[in-house]
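Sample intake — Methyltransferase type 12
Collected from: Massilia psychrophila
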Amino acid sequence: MLTEREIESCYLGQFIPVHYHHNMLMDQNRMHGFKSAINYAVKPGAKVLELGGGTGVLSWFAAAKAEKVYCVEFNPDMVKEARKMLAMNPNGHKVEVVHADAFEYLPPEPVDVVICEMIHVAMLREKQVEVMESFKRRYLARFGAPLPVFLPEAVIMAVQPLQQDYDFEGFHAPIVQFQDTAASSRGTTELAAPAVYSVLDFSQPTDTRIAWEGQFRIDKAGMLNALRFITKNILAVVSEESSTIDWLNHSMALPLDSPVQVSPGDVLQVSFQYRAGGSIPSLQAAIRAQVLATASVEAAIAAAELA
């Protein structure tokens, strides 16, 4: 009988199609960011582990400097794909593609760097947080401290109120939209600046439960009918330069069940909670948004205080 996690895996991205991995190869921002971060984090002669290897490209980046790379992949189709791709490339022989579950696998020896890219916007759907936390517990039990360096090192998540156009050639459809952060999005009006709601540091114990309640000061008049979720991955911290190597996911515009009319100066309160690795609808159902004070009411209160 399938466990709850195995049932979830069928729906939450653990066996995503091969062509999805091919699309990731074509994502220049992702590829360049990871290549730069891996080149910085992996020192000559290092031992490296990748959890959820896909095509094996990130393991291959590591193999340029590493002595040995263990590339763990659960999907048998991707295991074949990774082995085929790595055989075509120099240093591919330094990568051992292991057909195993990242929730259970431990390398036969301590490693210096762990790469894990099971990242979705807002840390939903894919199992980044759970896999990393499970690995840390098992690694410490077998090898003891210190833990390896994790890549990405951290993730910063923010949320932003939007007015989003849902008209598609006359067809009204309030759908989830994934938006390129490098380009303006069609029919999107930003009603306030983004607010950071969570920072996850993977070198520290990380809770899978994410909850936030905060306020926005509305900048533009409009119909609040969506929230944009922004995910910035800190792939590596370059301490000697006081800088970071980052990768910004596509943002996610999530429609609200109950739109709210807002005006400049209004105070908007937003709250939500969800589990990292959970479904998008679980977050959508948990969102609450309401205007606490309108600009006109605040102006009247201010005038009364001055009187």
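Post-analysis note: Residues 6-13 have pLDDT under 50 and may be disordered.
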